[in-house]
């Protein structure tokens, strides 16, 4: 069923695993991720960036596409459709109106008081509709679609501010920027586990780890033990699917049927998502 992230993440936090948010960029991603979740008996969050929504054809089409694929594939595991890095109150409302079951309001580039006020407005609307909300503090370096944060701009979240935002807004889960990066990592990730521990102790909400592509298993397990219940992955699926397309086209230069390379790309995404679900411990938790 289509559900919010609320129960999914509370259960994950309690039972010490993380639910994957896998971003959908087109039809094949959506197919691959839903099939992976069903096969693994895992809850799943379909992440939709504003850029991806624009590319696909709007929030409404995405909801219809997901609903119809869930019927077609007889999906029984819990699925959330979540706006990733919502940039404004208006965008969040548009996604909710279209049928998204969850939204992120990313006010991380605003001063704390403004971030809190904006997040609270979104929470008030969302909670009246049974929709879950994620917020962010600190700044995650790297690039995702149009969201670019340079090395100079990146910032680790401050635990006391995290506590303040969570208390003031009542968000369902929270993403503290603690050194993770959107896009490929240059060198080993340097995650701020000390602060993660502090935030866990100060607050009680499930934590979210953005930039989940390319994080070593040991760090994943550490993050989960410190209250992380949601891990976002996009880049890794993009890398494996594009690699598969290149391989097919190089091996068979005469191919022109789109399905002959998009099919294998879809398989690559499905395999990768299954691998992540096992690493995150969400397999057989649906
Ligand atoms: O919000 C989406 C994620 O944080 C994705 O990060 O593309 O580095 O896996 P990633
Ligand atoms: Zn992110």
From TrEMBL:
Cofactor(s) demanded: Zn(2+)
Q: Does the keyword Transmembrane apply?
A: no
Residues noted as binding dihydroxyacetone phosphate in the record, renumbered to the chain = 183, 211-213, 232-235
Keyword rRNA processing recorded: no
- Give the binding site residues for Zn(2+) 1: 85, 182, 210
What are the recorded GO MF terms, alphabetically?
A: fructose-bisphosphate aldolase activity; zinc ion binding
Q: What does the note under cofactor report? A: Binds 2 Zn(2+) ions per subunit. One is catalytic and the other provides a structural contribution.
Q: Where does Zn(2+) 2 bind?
A: 106, 136
Tell me, which GO biological process terms does this entry list?
A: fructose 1,6-bisphosphate metabolic process; glycolytic process
Which keywords accompany this UniProt record?
A: Lyase, Metal-binding, Zinc
Domain of life, per lineage: Bacteria
Residue positions of the active site: 84
Q: NCBIfam families, per this entry?
A: cbbA, fruc_bis_ald
How is this protein named in the record?
Fructose-1,6-bisphosphate aldolase, class II
Native source organism of the sequence: Desulfuribacillus stibiiarsenatis
């Amino acid at each position: 069923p289509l559900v919010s992230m609320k129960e999914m993440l509370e259960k994950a936090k309690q039972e010490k695993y993380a639910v994957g948010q896998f971003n959908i960029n087109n039809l094949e991603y959506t197919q691959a991720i839903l099939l992976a979740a069903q096969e693994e008996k895992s809850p799943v969050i379909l992440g939709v960036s504003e850029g991806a929504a624009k590319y696909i054809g709007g929030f409404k089409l995405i909801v219809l596409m997901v609903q119809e694929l869930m019927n077609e594939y007889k999906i029984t595991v819990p699925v959330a459709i979540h706006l990733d890095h919502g940039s404004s109150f208006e965008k969040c409302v548009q996604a909710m109106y279209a049928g998204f079951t969850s939204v992120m309001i990313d006010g991380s580039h605003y001063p704390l008081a403004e971030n809190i006020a904006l997040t609270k407005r979104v929470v008030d609307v969302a909670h009246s509709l049974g929709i879950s909300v994620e917020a962010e503090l600190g700044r995650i370096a790297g690039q995702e679609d149009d969201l670019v944060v340079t090395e100079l701009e990146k910032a680790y979240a401050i635990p006391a501010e995290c506590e303040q935002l969570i208390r003031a807004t009542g968000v369902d889960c929270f993403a503290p920027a603690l050194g993770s990066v959107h896009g490929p990592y240059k060198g080993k990730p340097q995650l701020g586990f000390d602060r993660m521990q502090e935030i866990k102790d100060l607050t009680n909400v499930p934590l979210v780890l953005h930039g989940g592509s390319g994080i070593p298993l040991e760090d994943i397990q550490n993050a989960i033990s410190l209250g992380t219940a949601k891990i976002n992955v996009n880049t890794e699926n993009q890398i494996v699917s594009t690699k598969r397309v290149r391989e097919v086209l190089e091996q068979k230069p005469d191919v022109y049927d789109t399905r002959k390379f998009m099919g294998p790309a879809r398989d690559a995404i499905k395999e990768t998502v299954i691998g992540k679900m096992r690493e995150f411990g969400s397999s057989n938790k649906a």
